[in-house]
Design goal:
- This protein is mostly helical.
- Helix content is 49%, strand content 5%.
């Protein structure tokens, strides 16, 4: 990196270095976050509906009854014969049977825990009143969907990384299709309720948007391991941690932060087997490294400023970059 560019970066991050050392001691003393105890969490009320069991398991239930109770699952233009055939289709039944052992008795409790934490931190937010599980032919792009008063969960996308029904799915995707990622998917589905959405094409803005989402995970599922929030394996998390400085320098040296190049979204933010540096960094790198860097930046900002969760989620990306003094 050239001397002039280093000088500019240093000016950018240290423009407020006149603050007293005692002030920074105060800020650092306010950065540790405490999470509510179980008895402090508000009660939430919702109905858990296992739609796949009603549709594929209880074949004695008339189709008309299901259509009247759940009209949103039955487009009017689709003939009843299609639904009747689907209910007894052998492949659909195999998929349904595979989901029966999932989650046992803890599905409602785990979902409730996320919603309770959401209600604790966002008491004025209206949360889903019905949580409905269903089969989606393993549509792993929509593992949980926030549909206003409904929260939909694709139960057939949690069978486990080595399940034979997932044969042909790339390994980097199969790594995510496990029960341990239920809370992650629920929070991701609900995150747009709590985070200001931006349509900005600036790479920094997109990084920070993902960083806020991952930071939100810490509060809505505080008992989860950090690597599960981003759905990394231990090896991927270790790589990201070991190469944090290298990745940051690569982004800065190539002037990516304020770029609107759509290719950066594809290279560093979207799901993929590895991030695309087109250099030695490609080897063993996890996909979505830009999301992880955004998360690290948001964490640095909170640590420097002592901002509350709500303040972090509403702060714009450039202010987070500036005040975080992020420079690993």
């Amino acid at each position: 990196m050239g001397t002039s560019r280093l000088r500019k970066i240093n000016r950018f991050f240290w423009h407020r270095k006149g603050l007293l050392f005692g002030t920074w001691l105060f800020v650092f003393g306010c950065t540790s976050s405490t999470h509510p105890k179980p008895q402090e969490l508000p009660k939430v009320s919702f109905e858990l509906i296992r739609f796949e069991q009603l549709f594929f398991g209880d074949l004695d239930t008339p189709l008309e009854e299901l259509k009247s109770q759940y009209p949103y699952f039955f487009p009017s233009r689709t003939p009843d014969l299609v639904w009747q055939t689907k209910r007894t289709d052998s492949l659909q039944q195999v998929l349904y049977q595979a989901t029966l052992p999932l989650f046992k008795d803890d599905l409602k409790q785990r979902t409730s825990n996320v919603l309770q934490h959401a209600k604790y931190y966002f008491p004025n937010e209206k949360l889903p009143k019905k949580v409905i599980t269903l089969l989606t032919d393993v549509d792993y792009s929509l593992r949980a969907v926030d549909a206003d008063s409904l929260l939909l969960i694709s139960i057939d996308t949690y069978l486990g990384t080595s399940h034979p029904l997932y044969e042909g799915i790339p390994q980097y995707i199969k790594n995510k299709l496990t029960q341990k990622h239920l809370e992650t998917e629920i929070i991701d589905a609900l995150s747009s309720r709590f985070i200001n959405q931006t349509e900005s094409r600036v790479f920094l803005d997109r990084m920070i948007k993902h960083g806020k989402r991952l930071y939100l995970h810490e509060f809505l599922a505080p008992s989860m391991l950090p690597l599960n929030h981003i759905q990394y394996t231990q090896e991927q998390w270790d790589w990201a941690t070991a190469h944090e400085s290298d990745v940051w320098r690569y982004f800065v040296d190539n002037e990516f932060l304020f770029s609107t190049d759509e290719n950066l979204h594809f290279r560093f933010l979207t799901p993929s087997p590895y991030s695309k540096f087109y250099s030695y960094l490609d080897e063993n790198s996890p996909g979505r490294i830009g999301q992880w860097m955004g998360y690290r930046m948001v964490k640095a900002y909170q640590k420097r400023t002592g901002a509350s969760l709500q303040e972090v989620l509403t702060t714009n990306a450039q202010e987070i970059l500036k005040k975080s003094r992020y420079n690993p």
